[in-house]
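Subject: Sanity check before I submit

Could someone independently write out the structure tokens for this chain? I want to compare against mine line by line before I put it in a report. The sequence has 144 residues.
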Amino acid sequence: MAHGSFVIFDWTVHPLSRGGFRRVIFVITMIVIPLGVLEVFQHFAWAVFATLFLLGTLSAYWLPTRYAIDDEGIWVQRWFWKKRKLFRDLKRVERDPNGLFVSPFASRSRLDGHRGLLLMEPPERDDVEKYIRERIEPREEVSS
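---
Independent answer below. Compare away.
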């Protein structure tokens, strides 16, 4: 967080800890794929590589993700990875079945997946969405 900024909302999401069917699929995938790679390539190093690759690509699922919203923007932190989106750079917020999606584009864009940010499961979704909209939309009214 920036020095002197006050955190308005703060939550952590850890999908693996919820368990259920997705956890079973995750464990099966982490076993079957490396075994399949080992069978095809007949070398243990490729199975290790496949395991590390899967762990890296699925890190949003098995590592906790911390979200914080302060008066300047949104912080997302996962393990060694941090991302910051300032409200002045955002132009759109949309509801998603898994949370809220914020984007630097006023309308849908092909780059949304790369430049946008999914806030997974905010605890007070309506309050978080209202706060973000209040921080984004005043700029649109001024630019007439």
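---
OP: Matches mine. For the report I'm noting this point. The mean pLDDT is 89.
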